[in-house]
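Batch manifest, entry 17 of 40.
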Amino acid sequence: MDRSALRVAWREAFSNAPPHFLSMIFMRKALIWHEQCRRFGALSPDLKRALNSTVAGKAVRQPAAAIHPGTQLVREWNGRRYQVDVSDDGFVMNGERYKSLSAIALHITGTSWSGPRFFGLNARSGGQA
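Output type: structure tokens
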């Protein structure tokens, strides 16, 4: 597209004329980004929040890891190895179903733990004993 075609496309996409100082390269990139957002969706609110935190110099909290059915989680605790299978409706350990990883961590340790933390699924994983 030449400059005049880019200005027309810009007006259609953004409902106003582009500033005169914009380069053709920038207008092309902005129009491409706009079309991608229209077709595939814009940035998620979580990602926008993380980007704004980064710009402000703040620490960005990592999202929890997604656990898909079929995944096997393994943890050694007090010399014993525990294996947990992730299913569509919860978690299975030794043939017994659990609703959450925290319930399994409680069963294993006898104390209240964050299940994802116990199984090392977030940045501050539990220590090995």
